[in-house]
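Retro notes
What went well: the complex prediction finally ran end to end.
Inputs used:
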Amino acid sequence: SDIFHRRQKLQQYNTPEDAAELINNARNIIVLTGAGVSTSLGIPDFRSDTGIYTKLAQLGLSEPQDVFDLSTFLIDPSIFYTFAKDVLPTTESFSPTHLFLKVLDDHHKLLTNYTQNIDNLEVNTGLSREKIVQCHGSFATATCMKCKKKVPGAQLYDYIRKGEVAYCKNPDCGTTPVGSKRQFSVTTGSSDEDDAEIAPGVMKPDITFFGEKLPDEFEDRFEKRDINMCDLLICIGTSLKVAPVSEIVRMLPSSVPQIYINRQPCRHYQFDITLLGNCDDVVAHLCHLLGWELNHPMLKSLE
Ligand code: CNA
């Protein structure tokens, strides 16, 4: 069908050995990551059987992705705050696949890691922030939906852990009329509009919800620079179902080889090499083939 993207496969590549050779020959690799690179740390993804969407569906939410939908958040932020703890960054941990990004960079091969993840775990490996584009934002900062004041995201963590809605602590918030207040009070369904107007706004972590624009950095970096520099694409742990990030796969020139590392195959994009399995095991195997060290405690049992 037309909705499926078909590219001419570079027929000569198939095996993990071919993937290692492509990595070995590349200088500017784009690694596009998704929730699958963090699941081994106990952070659920969205679309697996054990993912957040399944859990939400079991709880009776008919549209699980509403949890991350802006209009739903404006109507009832408690839905998001009830579930946000599942994707809140944990301590200092990182997975072997996160470490693989750092190892790629240490070998001067990583152009950019475009991550859809909001857990902010890539930086725990020591990977430079300059190499990372957080396509869907992160919990690092948060913004008041009313007065637009930005605060460090950590100020919300206690609320998120407890599943309570966080409100703005700016003493002026709610007393100074701003453009969005009327819409806000209407969508909260408040029967007493005055109450809503003097109340402080709801804080929202700066993660990109459905219905929101992606951070400018995404387009700026990909379309103005990386699209012309990239010589290999590796997609890891993502279902590639969320646009516009998934469009990276389609937009890169067909001469750029593409590798897909995931538990399940991707049915709507055709890759040169698909390596199915647990991504931590797959990248460990690739590093082994490349003669690179991937020293991570979670991989000890493999040695
Ligand atoms: P998704 O749609 O849930 O897809 C994840 C994919 O990873 C699935 O195809 C799984 O089969 C696969 N997968 C899961 N675990 C592994 C594993 N160990 N090894 C290999 N493959 C695995 O998630 P996407 O990232 O594609 O969707 C984009 C959303 C999910 C983004 O907007 C994220 O913000 C959002 N998300 C992020 C996190 C996080 O930050 N850790 C967690 C949950 C959701």
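What we learned: The chain has two domains: 1-43+94-136+215-303, 45-89+139-207.
What to try next: split runs per interface for comparison.
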